Amino acid sequence: MKTTLTWGETLSITSMLFGLFFGAGNLIFPAFMGQEAGSNVWYALAGFLITGVGMPMLAVTALGITGSSGLLELSQRVGRRFGLIFTCALYLTIGPFFASPRCVTVPFEIGAKALLPAGFNEQLALLLVSLAFVAAALWFSLRPGKILVWTGKILTPLFLAVLSILLLTALTHPASTITAFTPTPAYTSAPVLQGLLDGYNTMDTLAGLAFGIIVVDVIRKLGIEEPAAIARNTVKAGVFSCLLMAVIYVLVAIAGAESRGYAPINGNGGAVLASISSFYFSDAGAALLALIVLFACLKTVIGLITSCSEAFVTMFPGKFSYQQLAIAFAVITFLIANIGLSAIIQFSIPVLMMLYPIAIILTLTSLAGRICSLDRLITRSIMTAVVLSSAFDFIKALPPAWRTSLGLDGLISQLSEILPFFAQGFGWLCPALLGLIAGFILKLLQGKIHDSQ
């Protein structure tokens, strides 16, 4: 019986998983962080790599070593109802509601928009570009058995080849040294913490939990059936793909920091990348950047439609076919993409701030449960505390006008004063610790009651 993938197969799965991970946010956020951080870019990168690389690596590892076939099975170790609700929420967030539409609009905002003739209606252009993009992604997604070929062997190598042209040119011909640029206020006093928050925006811990179902399926199709062997090969592919992501994050962030030598501080990472490409490649820079972003986002949308559809088929067997779900998710992605990138990001951040702590704790408790047999009662206690506290992170991340209209500003001010790290975006840390302590106490009391009987 086959128990180990060949190096060629491992490389293909690594390439596929990297391709699924590395989408719009993975280019935009490190570039923006680099420009904003300036001379503090290395400190910001330290934080960014923890949440942007370390946690996704642990998420894939958790799926692997627990032998879970996907997020639903992993999360139902906490509770059946929790598993179903969290799995639905996560897949809809990184799929048709937020991440997929973002991946559709980014190529338009960064690439196609710059190539439009003067006076052309931008909303109509977005409609046409998003329609063509989603149609192409759906065509690939309706053939899930070929995802290793499409993503691992074709789209990802093309993306890396085109991106390397831009990065190698920028990094070998720097306009100035990074130490010359003063960091912006957000990266002056606590650049590591800000980097941690920036890593949230990539959505990769959520993606690591979501894409596990694709990796496990591909490994099985390559002839490995033994659960322990599937786990080993899943972990190996996860580690390799995340290390590749880390290298590219570092290079993109440094290029973003060096762009301060020839470009003003921009409002978003897309504008930073546009500045870099236009500085080094003049008019051809827009076309080069359009290709980079197109390949980056297309492969990710294919993976998101595929994983979401497969997950919902598993969660609701007999209700919908894979093809029906893929078409439905593609249509929703297309509709939401047309509200525009800024609106998508504005709506997605509060949801991410709520889901990310839950995903992190699910990952860590799953690993702890495998390593030291963490009791289910303790896991549920920790998760309950984090779920409750993450609701406050959701409220805090709402647009200020929304908070004011809902009368929530006073609550946020009070929480910032009494809850450690809440103001920095990590208000769930202390509740998680209290949940752990409460779990141990409950377990101890449970044992005493059992002994007395």
Automatic annotation (TrEMBL):
Question: Which InterPro entries does the UniProt entry name for this protein?
Answer: Brnchd-chn_aa_trnsp_Livcs
Kindly indicate whether the keyword Transmembrane belongs to this entry. yes
Q: Could you say which residues form the signal peptide?
A: none
* Source organism: Selenomonas ruminis
Q: Under what name is this protein listed?
A: Branched-chain amino acid transport system carrier protein
Question: Which superkingdom does the taxonomy of this entry point to?
Answer: Bacteria
The family note in this entry says:
Belongs to the branched chain amino acid transporter family.
A Pfam cross-reference name: Branch_AA_trans
Q: Where in the cell is it found?
A: Cell membrane
According to the UniProt record, one GO cellular component term is: plasma membrane
Q: Which GO terms describe its molecular function?
A: L-isoleucine transmembrane transporter activity; L-leucine transmembrane transporter activity; L-valine transmembrane transporter activity
Membrane topology qualifier? Multi-pass membrane protein
Functional description taken from the UniProt entry: Component of the transport system for branched-chain amino acids.
User: What high-level taxonomic lineage is stated for the organism?
Assistant: Bacteria, Bacillati, Bacillota, Negativicutes, Selenomonadales
Q: Which UniProt keywords apply?
A: Amino-acid transport, Cell membrane, Membrane, Transmembrane, Transmembrane helix, Transport
Provide the primary localization: membrane
Q: Which biological processes are named by the entry's GO terms? A: isoleucine transport; L-leucine transport
Q: What residues form the membrane-spanning segments?
A: 7-29, 41-66, 78-99, 124-142, 154-173, 205-223, 235-257, 287-313, 325-345, 351-369, 381-402, 422-445
